[in-house]
Amino acid sequence: GGIHVDKVKARALSRGLITKEQAAQMADHEAQYLIFMPGFSTAEKITNVSGRGVGMDVVKTNIEKIGGTVDLQSIQGKGTTLKIKIPLTLAIIPALIVTCGGDRFAIPQVSLLELVRLDGDQPAEKIEMIHGHPVYRLRGQLLPIAYLGHELKLDDDLERVDETPKALNIVVLQAGGSSFGLVVDEINDTEEIVVKPLGKQLKSLSCFAGATIMGDGRVALILDVIGLAQKAGYITENPDSAIVDSGSRKRKDIESRETLLLFDAGRNNRMAIPLSMVDRLEEFNPSNVEFSGNREVIRYRDQIMPLIRVNDYIHSGGCQQQSAAESMQVVVYTENGRSIGIVVDRISDIVEENLSVKRYAHENGIFGSAVVAEKVTDLLDIRSIIQQADPFFFGSQNVTRN
């Protein structure tokens, strides 16, 4: 039957949720969203299942908590459509895709040091055996070798030197304080993958940190580098170890680690913000940017989203020049149902760190610096620059702005 807009307005007025002036200025589409307000109900009597005005409010609040949106479209006498959008992304990491035994696997790039390929007679000549374990002399250093097919029981036996194929692909990986080489059948390409956690039944498999869905719809398992090194016997297994996509080694470390989004802003200016403050990462065509007054805005999910350029609010040493053909990279921050886009030069990575501020800043927009991924990184005070750009963003919002 659709939503009767006049009846909704009248009920909201009778419950004191809006004023007469707001009701008069409210468009039909805005009035329909009144059903999500706390305390709103069209039920004549309060029962144990209806009339308290909490149901739709709880739905909308919980969906927005996980970064989702609720869209409502209704035509009186024809019907109502509710669209719920929930973000797919839990974590995005760059990874190297390899093939072994006919299956594809992903190796987080945070653990990747280099790639080595041995052709012709090189495998037989350069792979040596020491105490029954294969090693490779890499620039004068002995590099222990593990065969992925053997460790995952995709092959029956470990290939020996005299059985070594004519070409060998070695992925050199960092595991804790040591490195080792992982032999795979093929090295495919690097991709940014969406990390999916493994189910409870698979949590005990130390060789895997998660899974991802590839472009063709097939599942690829994400290798746990430290777990593989432990299985191969190259590092000591720690009963407290907990393997995650960033290579963290101990559960107590994980609890104190902060997941950070790294990005560039201005010349040689590396910055970070907690990933928990990020609603979405988006890329927009610069030609879609419009102006509302003197503010840059863009149409985004049925909203007019203001844009803030980080370089305008911090001392960044000048802006990088962006060609018209380049996409504009934006970090979307959402609070109280409103979104604002933070324009950066380049989103570079997502990392986990035991964050310790080494230097406290006294300038707007930056509250300190820390060493992140072995580089000095400024910590962006995202709420501060939003407050500078839009002093009313964090204030109380009129319902008509939904």
Arrangement of strands in the largest sheet: 5-9-10-8-7-6
Described by strand count, sense and barrel closure, the largest sheet is: 6 strands, mixed
Could you estimate the helical fraction of the residues in percent? 10-25%
Radius of gyration: 27 Å
Distance between the termini: 23 Å
**Basic shape:** elongated
Low-confidence stretches: 157-162, 237-256, 317-321, 396-402
Strand content: 35-45%
Kindly state the number of beta strands. 24
How are the elements arranged and paired?
Elements: H1 5-14, H2 20-25, H3 28-32, H4 55-65, E1 69-75, E2 79-85, E3 92-100, E4 103-108, E5 112-118, H5 122-126, E6 127-130, E7 133-138, E8 141-147, H6 148-151, E9 168-175, E10 178-184, E11 186-194, E12 208-213, E13 219-223, H7 225-232, H8 251-256, E14 258-264, E15 270-274, E16 280-284, E17 290-292, E18 295-300, E19 303-309, E20 328-335, E21 338-344, E22 346-353, E23 366-372, E24 375-380, H9 382-389
Describe what you observe in this structure.
The protein is of the alpha+beta class and 402 residues long. It is 16% helix and 39% strand. The protein has nine helices and 24 strands. It has helices at residues 5-14, 20-25, 28-32, 55-65, 122-126, 148-151, 225-232, 251-256, 382-389; strands at residues 69-75, 79-85, 92-100, 103-108, 112-118, 127-130, 133-138, 141-147, 168-175, 178-184, 186-194, 208-213, 219-223, 258-264, 270-274, 280-284, 290-292, 295-300, 303-309, 328-335, 338-344, 346-353, 366-372, 375-380.
